[in-house]
């Protein structure tokens, strides 16, 4: 490969990498031992609905008992607004310990995960006005401060049944929407998913929550991968997941993550928390890709013909 071909290949590769790059909004591993340091993208502040229940232990964020914890992965006034084709992905590791609920019930059998926009208004779920953000613990489970939060909630029962499995909802932003964890009239049901396999307490699970904007609205996928156990005691490594769509009142603006375990004797540990924003190439960038690929292939074809021509000349000279 000559220098011109190599240069063209490097140019083409650099263009592809540049326009398809992703942005890490938050990469929190709690290695600093703090949960109150808001220094994006390396760290964010985490707050609990009840005092004394949230701390960093052994390099992980640990929540004792039921309630809500919340963090903000963008600066105030600058939420992420997804364009068509763009997506937001949250991943983290989760360990459930303590005393698991013995039977499914609406009160103590679910863990709940939400992606929200704290800037919403009662008339515009995707507004980017001044955010309503928590700055301390003890904000409670029912508070008017989250009335205009809008977004999506996924739930996963610890001990599911054939009729009590993973669910997904949209949280509407209005004056009656005063809770991030209590599902009521302010939440709109979206879909069921998952299986009737139980969590294995003490194990580590890889968890992801991804929202993608489409031409019609929004598509969400919530998944938990790890060891699950069936009613016969057989452990299976699999992924429990739920997929849902919202083409009616889509929320495509986000800055808030909430985790809401249920169960008074539950202990939840979160670690390796990453929020990533995936953008689509702009029209100009798409043109650059096309131009770069054209230059590369033009040079490549030219070199092939040049080599064949030189080979032909050498053959004629040898036969002369």
Approximate strand percentage: 35-45%
Average pLDDT score: 82
Q: Which spans of ≥5 residues are poorly predicted at pLDDT below 50?
A: 6-12, 14-18, 284-293
How many strand units? 18
Helix share, percent: 10-25%
Biggest β-sheet, characterized?
Answer: 9 strands, antiparallel
Distance between the termini: 30 Å
Structural class: alpha+beta
* Secondary-structure element series: HEEEEEEEEEEEEEEEEEEH
Q: Give me the number of helical elements.
A: 2
> Radius of gyration over alpha carbons?
25 Å
Shape by Cα distribution = globular
Describe this structure as you would to a colleague:
The chain is α+β, with helices and mostly antiparallel strands and 320 residues long. It contains two helices and 18 strands. The protein has helices at 3-19, 283-319, and strands at 22-28, 46-48, 54-57, 60-64, 69-72, 80-81, 87-98, 110-117, 150-157, 166-171, 187-193, 198-199, 204-213, 218-229, 235-246, 253-254, 256-261, 266-278. Strands 1, 3, 4, 7, 12, 13, 14, 15 and 18 form a nine-stranded antiparallel β-sheet that branches. A seven-stranded antiparallel β-sheet has the order 2-5-17-8-9-10-11, with no helix packed on it. Helix 1 packs antiparallel against helix 2 (283-319). The longest helix is centred in the last third of the chain and has 37 residues, at 283-319. The chain starts with a helix and ends with a helix. The model is unreliable at 6-12, 14-18 and 284-293 (pLDDT under 50).
């Amino acid at each position: 490969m000559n220098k011109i071909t190599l240069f063209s290949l490097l140019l083409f590769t650099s263009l592809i990498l540049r326009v398809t790059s992703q942005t890490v909004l938050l990469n929190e591993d709690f290695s600093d031992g703090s949960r109150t340091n808001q220094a994006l993208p390396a760290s964010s502040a985490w707050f609990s609905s009840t005092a004394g229940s949230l701390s960093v232990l052994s390099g992980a964020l640990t929540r004792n008992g039921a309630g809500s914890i919340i963090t903000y992965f963008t600066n105030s006034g600058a939420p992420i607004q997804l364009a068509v084709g763009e997506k937001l992905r949250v991943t983290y590791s989760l360990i459930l310990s303590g005393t698991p609920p013995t039977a499914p019930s609406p009160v103590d059998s679910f863990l709940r995960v939400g992606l929200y926009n704290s800037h919403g208004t009662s008339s515009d779920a995707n507004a980017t006005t001044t955010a309503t953000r928590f700055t301390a613990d003890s904000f409670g489970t029912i508070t008017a401060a989250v009335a205009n939060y809008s977004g999506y909630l996924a739930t996963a029962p610890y001990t599911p049944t054939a009729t009590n499995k993973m669910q997904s909802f949209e949280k509407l932003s209005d004056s009656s929407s005063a809770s991030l964890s209590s599902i009521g009239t302010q939440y709109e049901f979206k879909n069921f998913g998952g299986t009737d396999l139980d969590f294995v307490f003490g194990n580590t699970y890889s968890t992801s929550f991804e929202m993608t904007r489409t031409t019609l609205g929004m598509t969400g996928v919530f998944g938990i991968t790890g060891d699950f156990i069936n009613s016969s005691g057989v452990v299976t490594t699999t992924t429990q997941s739920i997929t849902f769509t919202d083409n009616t009142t889509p929320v495509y603006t986000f800055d808030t993550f909430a985790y809401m375990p249920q169960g008074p004797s539950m202990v939840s540990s979160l670690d390796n928390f990453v929020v990533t924003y995936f953008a689509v190439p702009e029209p100009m960038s798409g043109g650059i890709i096309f131009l770069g690929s054209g230059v590369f292939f033009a040079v490549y074809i030219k070199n092939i013909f040049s080599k064949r021509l030189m080979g032909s000349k050498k053959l004629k000279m040898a036969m002369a």
